[in-house]
Amino acid sequence: MLKSSTTLPNDKITKIAIGGFDGIHRAHQRLISRLGREGALVIVDKKQASLTPHIHRCRHLQYPCRFLDFEQIRDLGPEAFVELLKREFPSLETIVVGYDFHFGKGRAADAKSLKMLFDGEVWIVPEQFEDSLSIHSRTIRDLIKSGQIERANRLLGRHYAIMGKVVRGQGIGGRQLLPTVNLEVEDFLIPKEGVYATFTKIEGKLYPSVTFIGRRVTTDSAFAVETHLIDVEIPKLSEGKEIWIYFVKYLRENRKFEALSKLKAQIEKDIKRAKTTLLMR
Fold first, then answer.
1. Domain total in the chain
2. Which of 143, 157, 263, 264: CA 20 to 30 A from 253?
């Protein structure tokens, strides 16, 4: 029932933190900080994560991950769920959860119930705040979708990032505008349409960049994710190459321009703003 991201044997794990962990944000980090040695994350996977979908949650961790398919456990009662954990982790001594943790069919039990059902220690991490906001994955998603990327980053504790695969673009960037890398992005939450100051990671190297997301309303109206590397030549990239984009600041909304020359002039202004922003990071 449990899928693993490492080969560490379950019988060596003495502490677990349980949750959905989409984003591995600052509140999640408080849970994870309680694990110590021989700890692991138990990720209840509803296949809905979009900040850090699938195995990407494990990129931000130094601990092993175990994935529990929600569909396989949704009908378990609270007692059966606890018994499952004890079977899977024979040496389990401590469970760490958030204040709003619920489990069992129909969310029948909460964090306090877990203390009564589990015969080891249960640590409940209280609600965490940043910018007067309670830190939740859903709050971060809302901020990203509304273009408030800097605020979202503060709740995350890092720059929000998406991974995409290189695809063929229109072919006019290098000739009439500025050269870009065009990406197809799946599963990750796409930020609000517009232009962003970003860093782009290619083969482990970070490049200052300007990234456009949205419909190309000045040209073909197709949706695109395009990133321009600032002051460097784009390395040769094959289609399907995986690239990461890290969002630093929202610069402006998507706009339609009367001519490509005016669009190019605006992109050059965007690059200047991005350079100033990124130099401060």
1. 2
2. 157
Q: How many Cβ atoms are within 10 Å of 242's Cβ, its own excluded?
A: 12
Q: Is the distance from CB of 180 to CB of 245 less than 8 angstroms?
A: no
Burial status of residue 123 (CB atoms within 10 A of its CB: 0-12, 13-18, 19 or more): middle
- Would you tell me how many other CB atoms lie within 10 Å of the CB of residue 234? 16
Residues of the chain under the 50 pLDDT cut:
none
What value does the mean pLDDT of the chain take?
93
Q: What is the DSSP letter of 179?
A: -
Q: Tokens in use for 255?
A: 């706009």
pLDDT of residue 171: 62
pLDDT for 131 equals 85
Domain boundary residue among 118, 133, 148?
A: 133
Say whether pTM exceeds 0.85: yes
129 shares a domain with 59: yes
Burial class (CB in 10 A: 0-12, 13-18, 19+), 54: exposed
143 within a domain of the structure (yes/no): no
CA distance readout (Å), 52 to 95, 123, 140, 156, 207 = 23, 25, 12, 11, 22
- Length of the chain as a residue count: 281
Determine, yes or no, domain membership for 142.
Answer: no
Residue 258, pLDDT score? 87
Cα–Cα nearest to 164, from 240, 215, 223, 229 = 240
pLDDT computed for residue 280 by the predictor = 73
**Which range marks the domain in which residue 68 is found?**
2-133
What is the structure's pLDDT at 176?
Answer: 57
Helix (H, G, I), strand (E, B) or coil at 14: coil
How far apart CA 57 and CA 43 sit, in angstroms, is: 9
47 and 83 co-located in one domain:
yes
CA 265 to each of CA 234, 259, 269: distance values in angstroms, whole numbers, following the listed order:
20, 10, 7
